[in-house]
Structure formats: structure tokens, C-alpha cells
Amino acid sequence: MFTPGWEVREGASTNPYTGPPGGYDPSGEAIGNYTYVSSHGKLDRAMAELESLTYQESGALCSINFFYYMNGTDTGTLTLSVAMDNQRYPIWQRLGSQAARWIDEVILLRSMPLPFQIVFKATMTGGSEGDIALDNIQLLDCSPDHVAPSCSPNSYFECTNLECIPKENLCDLRPDCLFGEDEQP
């Protein structure tokens, strides 16, 4: 689901100086459709969201692969969140201009035992020279495992998504659980 602001485009963006020349293609050709939001004409902190369908659950190897394009002096923020159980959990973010090219990103989502959605949010800066685009968004290896892991309470901590991590990884200043709960007091 798109909120106002995102557009589906084919070919060059409306701003040839900051937008992509076309959709991502591994051969380097600027072809195909992509989704795009421009800062031109937007108020400071204006937001546009792109939400996936609701998925019932996922397996331990589930990841998301996407290409993003963020270019221009007024490029805002692109945030990827997982929405689950009426909460949003930011898991990835980029701020400002990244490059005048498509960048490949792969993020491990791991096991999701509850219904969830993937949400991309673009927050604009209010200037006129900034563009954010997304292409080739895919969930990979997300089939449910159908076997719920169980953690040994003496040796492991159970994350919200039912993943087990060793207790020695708790409060080590490095989030091991998808939502970072292993670093919370």
C-alpha cells in the first residue's frame, strides 16, 4: 500500500539531476518500473510510506533484498521497519544523499512467528533537490520452518521472534535479536 508521495515510474525521474535515470537492471540499462518520491514541493518532515501485504510468519533464513537510490542535497531519510503486533521496529536506515546510483541491500529478517509487514518510510527535508527510489524489493527464503525453536533457559535468551541467542550475548552493546531486546536492561 502506498501513502501519498510515492509514485510508480518508468524511465527517468522528474528531476534529471537527482533522480534515477530508470529502474535498476544488472546490465546497467535504465529500464523497468520503480517506486519513487521526490522532495520537490514537499514540506519539511513530510513522510511517504510503502507497506507490504501482511505475511503470516517466516522462517529463520528470511531476508529482504532491495535496491535503493538516494541522491541530492535535500535527500531525507529512508527507514525500513518490520510492523508486528501493532508495533513498528526500525531495522535499517539511511540518511541523506548516498550516491547517484542504485545500491543493493540485503537484510536478514530471521524468524517471524506472528503476522508481519515490511514498511519503507521516506521522510523529506523540505528542499527541492532530493530523491529516494526503491526497486526489485524481494523477500527471500521466508518459508516458515514449521518447528518452533525452544531455548534452554539456562544457556539461551529467547528473542521476541523466538530466535535463541547465547546468554553471554546479552547486553554486549551489539544487538543480536532482530528488535534489539537483548540490549535492553
UniProtKB/TrEMBL annotation:
Q: Where is the MAM domain?
A: 6-144
Q: Which PROSITE patterns match?
A: LDLRA_2 (PS50068), MAM_2 (PS50060)
Q: Which GO terms describe its cellular component?
A: membrane
Q: Which cysteines are joined by disulfide bonds?
A: C159-C177
Q: Where is this region: Disordered?
A: 1-24
Q: What's in the keyword line of the UniProt record? A: Disulfide bond
Protein name per the record: MAM domain-containing protein
